Amino acid sequence: MRSLRPAALAAALLSLSLAAPAQTQSGLDRAGFDPAVRAQDDLFRAANGQWLKTVEIPADKPEYGTFIQLRDKSDREVRAIVEGLAAKPQAPGSVAEKVALYYGAYTDLAGIDQAGLKPIQPLLASIDAIKTRKELSLWLGRQQGLMNLPLGLAVYPDFKEPGINRPLTWQGGLGLPDRDYYLKAEEERFAKALKAYGEYLTTLARLAGMKHPEQAAQTTLALERQLAAAHWDRVENRNMVKLYNPHARADLAKAAPGLDWQAFLDGAGLGSIDRLSISQPSATLAIAKLLAEAPLADWQTYLKLHALDSAADTLPKAFRDARFAFRGTALTGATEPKPRWQQGIDQVNAALGEALGQLYVAEHFPPGHKQRMVTLVNNLLGSFGDSLDGLTWMGPETKGRARAKLQSYVTKIGYPDTWRSYETLVVKKGDALGNGERAARFEWARQVAKAGKAVDRREWAMTPQTVNAYYNPLANEIVFPAAILQPPFFNAAADDAVNYGAIGAVIGHEISHGFDDSGSQFDADGALRNWWSDADREAFKKLGDQLVAQYEQYEPVPGKKLNGRLTLGENIADLSGLQIAYKAYLKSLGGKEAPVIDGLTGAQRFFMGWSQAWREKARESRVLQLLTSDTHSPPEFRANGAALNHDGFHEAFGVKEGDKMHKAREQRIRIW
């Protein structure tokens, strides 16, 4: 079972593309450059063109690039740890034994095949046992954190009181990646995916022995279409002010009648809460109405198919194959599933991530890396402060509050100071599906226990072995897990210019998220509060509108342009992060001229390092999926889109009118 939590709330998560190529003196992978492409015309292809021409996307991957390569490296390192634990007896009940048993059960395909449908029968029987709307509400509450449901719950810091954890709702229940797949089915690519989804649901119903499989699939699709019509779109879900709608528990039935709220919350373990925020009021109202009015038998069919989909990777081979044919090939274009060992590492990371993280850090994160990162982060924070001082579009009062927010940033590097306990998690030998369910319930119980209590500021939202980074506006913190702090982003042997263009821009990106169109709605304490003057907010909005217009000209696949509103926050962070990283790099030179290395000046190496970081290629179906659901622009446009507005890029490469990357100085967008 997969634990599903709202992803658009506490942190603007950065998806990076990383690599560990064969390096030159500078740390750049010049073999991946395309000498036929000038940086003045296409920075992305100048740094990555030869690699793009010669490297094939592996059959088991929807996209491939340096980020995926580094993630694979992390998985291999974690695999060695896990298989080392599994190779010898571990103390009964220890975390080491739990890791070994969890991985062993998940990768024992013969055992999973032999168990058949028996492990999931109790769950399917619990759906059959639903006889009333109250029982439906109770069941939906009990399954929180275990599967994709029409209405989800999560526990987060209260937007207005970020020192206290409180529950909130989140729309859900769609089997396809986004509402657009249902609402824009006249578009050929969406129609193809919708057809494949219907076939997948039919297969699940048939394999499970349900009567009239085709009808079961159509019943489920009909409910999902109605859910999709009610859902807020991805752009609306970035507006934190609109998402914050607190209600007293007694008022929930009036806000969204149709759902038995008390039964729902009782089932979730949250029956005694004093209040709850309804994230998407109109969607929640429609979902509650649908739960009250659609035939109970239809909901039972829907829930059975969703349960089967959620558990398919721990069910017999026919289920696993059907799931991959849809979620792998049809949606992403991959032609082979990810190796089972790697799927197993994903699952153990999800269930026992910090336990593994503690072992990973001991083997793969040298202590010196942390101190060097502290220095880099402080340099970038200082450069952002310098940028604030030089802003012409922001008034002094707002500027003072912005400085206060910047000075309040908390930085977390490598790994948490306090490790999570897994003492009460029960893991059983040979019970892959049961282990997944118990892990999800264990995590949900951890979330429930936080409701109404003070926020633990020591907590991390990512494991150390995660190749990523994030900014959390509710804690005003930037977080860099250990796995991202290695070549090519953080390379102790590389030239400073390349490091600043890579990890420096990542740090700058995360700092900038506190001042993007969404993060800027939170103050220095992490509270949702307008700390801007009206004039300054309007000036900021106009700059954002210019960035939206720029990115909406990009067309990643024929006939499908970028959604500049959806990607605005990440585009602001890319642009601003690149700007302040460059300032920090120039400052680090202390007024001296950088040497020429590998035939490139320091400034040129900085921008080639930035571009090389976004080295990636993806299958068209995967690009389509990301265009509808991802707040990040495709890598090519992240590399070129930010550089296009950068004075330093134009100067470094002597970009002039007529070059494809030329943009007149007065038209360049400068935000932070």
Automatic annotation (TrEMBL):
Keywords on record: Hydrolase, Metal-binding, Metalloprotease, Protease, Signal, Zinc
Chain ranges of the Peptidase M13 N-terminal domain: 40-416
Residue stretches spanning the membrane: none
Cofactor(s) in the UniProt record: Zn(2+)
MF terms in GO: metal ion binding; metalloendopeptidase activity
One GO cellular component, as annotated: plasma membrane
Signal sequence, start to end: 1-22
GO biological process: protein processing
Stretches assigned to the Peptidase M13 C-terminal domain: 468-669
Superkingdom to which the source organism belongs: Bacteria
InterPro entries per UniProt: MetalloPept_cat_dom_sf, Peptidase_M13, Peptidase_M13_C, Peptidase_M13_dom_2, Peptidase_M13_N
UniProt entry tagged with the keyword DNA-binding: no
Family note: Belongs to the peptidase M13 family.
Name this protein carries in UniProt: M13 family metallopeptidase
Organism: Inhella proteolytica
Species lineage: Bacteria, Pseudomonadati, Pseudomonadota, Betaproteobacteria, Burkholderiales
